[in-house]
Specification:
Largest sheet of chain A: 6 strands, mixed
Number of strands of chain B: 11
Helix content of chain A: under 10%
Distance between the termini of chain B: 37 Å
Strand content of chain B: over 45%
Oligomer: heterodimer
Shape of chain B: globular
Helix content of chain B: under 10%
Number of helices of chain A: 0
Distance between the termini of chain A: 41 Å
Structural class of chain B: mainly beta
Radius of gyration of chain A: 13 Å
Shape of chain A: globular
Number of strands of chain A: 12
Largest sheet of chain B: 7 strands, mixed
Strand content of chain A: over 45%
CATH topology of chain A: Immunoglobulin-like
Amino acid sequence: AQSVAQPEDQVNVAEGNPLTVKCTYSVSGNPYLFWYVQYPNRGLQFLLKYITGDNLVKGSYGFEAEFNKSQTSFHLKKPSALVSDSALYFCAVRDYGDKLIFGTGTRLQVFP
Amino acid sequence: GAVVSQHPSRVICKSGTSVKIECRSLDFQATTMFWYRQFPKKSLMLMATSNEGSKATYEQGVEKDKFLINHASLTLSTLTVTSAHPEDSSFYICSARVSAYEQYFGPGTRLTVT
């Protein structure tokens, strides 16, 4: 079965510093990976996806993610964090039937 | 981008009553929609896949008689929580499949059962 793991419940970073939110995956076949962000009491907003091609994927709001096949990772990154980036971030993998299997989420807190 | 709405955004109901949540794709047609449940500070749990014109496919452990899903048109899926109990209180989120690699999510519905 497809799965993703987010090993950190929370990541704290100072505004202006680079941020990384970790995600590792376990799949049979080719991985189709996604990152979503959720603000309080809101639905999920799509950030970026990896289907095929370049390992470095650029997405919304200055975020990017690097697909690493040897480490089975798909970490989310941003060169310079903003306080407004503070939210809950989910990594997901596509399962059969186009279902999404989500990780447990990582709360990002950016301090001024 | 594609927009998915949910109604209501918040609902409070009494134990034993039923409540219906609507999920609409506003500017596109969706033959497939998904219903998720999210507990506080927890991940999203897929409850079921809703297919237009056919029965929903429920995930293991989800009671289909308690969580009734109807996908009667290409732009509307409904989730009815029947005989609600306090433990059904949760944040329910739907998504609409745009393609094999794209889903758009609704804003969610906060259900509180008293």
